[in-house]
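JOB MANIFEST
job_type = single_chain_structure
chain_count = 1
residues = 96
[input]
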Amino acid sequence: MITSVVHVSEVANILEARIPLADCRRIVSDIVAKGNVEVVDVTRDQYMASVHAAEFYDIGVNDALAFNIMQDRGLVEVYSFDSHFDDLPGIERLTA
């Protein structure tokens, strides 16, 4: 399984708005520490490419970032409740 520092940050922001900070820190730490989860860094160039992909596919920039990372690594399945992934070529969205 793979995610990016940007997407971990999105999770942290959502959790911080809904649960106590100590619980959020524990959850984020657990995600990052998992041996089967690779957390990849994101460069400025990758993020700029995602802005362009977001414009092309009319999706959010962070969704485009996930899409670009998936394409770069030959991945086709994404765990998401975001239906925007249903319209991206070569991607299968998993919800459970």
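[summary]
The helical segments are 5-16, 21-33, 44-57, 61-73.
The chain has a mean pLDDT of 95.
exit_status = 0
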